[in-house]
Amino acid sequence: MSPPEDDSYLDSYISTIGVDFKIRTVEQDGKTIKLQIWDTAGQERFRTITSSYYRGAHGIIVVYDVTDQESFNNVKQWLNEIDRYASENVNKLLVGNKSDLSDKKVVSSETAKAFADEIGIPFMETSAKNASNVEQAFMAMAAEIKNRMASQPANSARPATVQIRGQPVNQKAGCCSS
Which of 14, 57, 96, 171 could bridge across to 125 with cysteines, CB 3.0–4.6 Å? Predict the structure, then answer.
């Protein structure tokens, strides 16, 4: 699922191999927000590559295929990876993609919503094919990040510092001192 750039969709979409990167600038509440979107390939074989991209992320959208039960089953593992490698209060959003394929749907909206509620993250369904809710998913994530960042104290973004103060050392006179 990529953010819509020119309202185009390719029926012959090729799965991401490794990492795909896009930059998108959005306007929200009079503020300009720059989104760096890293599509890190949900395939199992790229798990070791993708975990390094979690560090420093402010928000992560986990996308599964509503027509593929195994894809949904893997969500829990991906969320465990995020909890392991991402910052503690990273924003998360669960997205079920391919909602346009209702006749092939195997993961119900109710099941996914109940799971998302259980772990305390927002949920929505999208269709990259007809651009349903794709823009809304990115805007919702941007809003969540903006709200979290606005509620943090200004100095919380800086790393903690440790001050080291030396204490004078009293030395006893040795054999060579006067």
Answer: 96
The domain total for the chain is 1
Residue 164 forms part of a structural domain: no
Handedness of CA 49, 53, 55, 58 (dihedral sign): negative
For residue 20, what are the contacts with CB-CB under 8 A and spacing of at least 6?
2, 38, 39, 41
* Cα–Cα nearest to 52, from 79, 17, 75, 81: 81
Query: Residue 64's beta-bridge partner residues?
Result: 96
Give CA–CA dist 58/24, Å, rounded: 15
pTM to 2 decimals? Answer: 0.74
d(CA 104, CA 111): 16
pLDDT tens sequence across 23-77: 888 888 888 888 888 776 555 555 565 677 778 889 989 999 999 999 999 999 8
For residue 32, the SS3 value is strand
- The answer as to whether 131 is a domain residue is yes
Domain that holds residue 94: 58-151
CA end-to-end span of the chain = 79
Does any domain span residue 36?
no
Residue 89 within a domain: yes
CATH of the domain at 74: 3.40.50.300
